[in-house]
Amino acid sequence: MEQNYPEPANPDTYIPFVLEERIFAAGEPKLVTIRIVNMLGQLVAIPRAVGHPRGSNVPVLNLRYTEPGRKQAYWDGRDLQGQRVPTAVYFAVLQVGDQVEYWRFSVTAPRRRSRIFPFFRRRGDD
Length: 126
Prior knowledge:
- The chain is an all-beta fold.
- It has a single domain, classed as Immunoglobulin-like, CATH 2.60.40.
- It contains no helices and eight strands.
- A hairpin with a 5-residue loop joins strand 2 and strand 3 (43-45).
- The protein is elongated.
């Protein structure tokens, strides 16, 4: 797995990973799963594949890959119920066959404009 971007996730992020040629040495496709878990190891979300032959937006859950190379998943910062996750540290867990790899990353809440102070324009910003 490679560094997710943006980091910290605000709130969505892309998760790049590489499937090396050696894991395809037997010529068989590999099942890949990526899970987002919290600090307690509880499942939070399943990211979606980007550019997979079955199409984009396919969950990376026992997803079959037939060739090596750099791949990518996308997570929109929402949990399994569709709610935005709180600011915290999360882990991306990549599983290919019996091999498991973890990547730690942070999620920050999107910034909102203050409701206390109105938006002021500077002169010349018309």
